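2.7 Reproducibility. Because tokenized structures are sensitive to small changes in the input, we list the exact sequence used for ABC transporter ATP-binding protein, including any N-terminal residues retained from the expression construct. No trimming or masking was applied before prediction.
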Amino acid sequence: MQLEAAAVGFGARSLWSEVDISLQRGEFLAVLGPNGAGKSTFLKVLLGLQRLTAGTVEVMGRPVRRGSSQVGYIPQHHQLELETPLRARDLVALGLEGHKYGLPWVSRRARRRIDELIEQVGAQDYAQRPVGVLSGGEQQRLRAAQALAGDPGLLLCDEPLHSLDLNHQRAITELIRQQAVDRGAAVVFVTHEINPVIEHVDRVLYFARGAHRVGTVQEVMRSEVLTELYQSPVEVIEHRGRLVVMGEHSEGTHHA
Ligand SMILES: Nc1ncnc2c1ncn2[C@@H]1O[C@H](COP(=O)(O)OP(=O)(O)OP(=O)(O)O)[C@@H](O)[C@H]1O
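Resulting structure tokens (single pass, no recycling of outputs):
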């Protein structure tokens, strides 16, 4: 994916601008920033659901289009309706191309892939249950499996570890890493918390106060860089390989 001089605004408000970034296959980008900074909007641009107000965006070398089978998406967690007429397994199968067009058949190969993903996210025990009765974390694991089913070249993740316990955080992170490293996908990973994925991150895109920084973890996650970005004192402390960011404010606080 590639963005050049990209900007998004709503009415008179500029959300972010002058974003230049190009992500190669196999690269893992973490997108960070406070509430309302424009992280989910960045994903929407890559999904073709949000127009840029300036600049250009390409996905897999082509102009963005909605519903591309080459793009996988793990949306931000929300609980599915109790009455949703799908079994857990069906939700994963929806990630396969044939199902997008409503084809009734599932090839043996596709069935094997679905079984494999259900096992990898640890959903065997509830694969036949209606999705609406499952817990938030159980549903989230199925969404991850669904996004990976089509073997996407670009995988977009919006806080995919939210509502998962530590073991399942690790399992899902490992699946996402495999998609990047073994299957050569570019990964864009929106998160409030970099530590669970820090060892996999190649680059960071940090949004705050309408500005942003791009670079490696070492380049961006520094007290002086974030202090300049937030325009108020921020301290980044490293402790046993984890980063603690002190003094981060929400966007709302600044605009109040
Ligand atoms: N279609 C829209 N029209 C007007 N404003 C919008 C629209 N979409 C998003 N916004 C605003 O843009 C801002 C950024 O939203 P976005 O969801 O991208 O933030 P975020 O960084 O993902 O936040 P969070 O961490 O809370 O999920 C918010 O203030 C939101 O209200």
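The mean pLDDT is 90.
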